[in-house]
Hints:
The protein is an all-alpha fold. It has 5 helices and no strands. The protein has helices at residues 18-22, 27-34, 38-46, 54-64, 68-77. Helix 2 packs across helix 3 and helix 2 (27-34) crosses helix 4 (54-64). The chain starts with 17 loop residues before the first helix and ends in an 8-residue tail after the last helix.
Amino acid sequence: MLCVSPGKIQGQTHKIPRATARAxxxxxxxxLAAGIxxxxxxxxxxxxxxxxxxxxxxxxxxxLDIPLSDLADVWRADMPIRQAS
Length: 85
């Protein structure tokens, strides 16, 4: 699977259970399928890369077969509610 550019799997990527998200695949397999380095995926999962590039999020979404809208829902759930000024 190729993406035009290689990470916010909702900025909260680390909240997606790793074992579930990878569906039995290794970190290296998922990273390569997404076109990112295994170290980048480690950082995303650990929360050390809290806001990966949108292209990375799209590629991970495809590699993990998780609809992008599902990832957006997780991200939105953590957004503070803002009041109009």
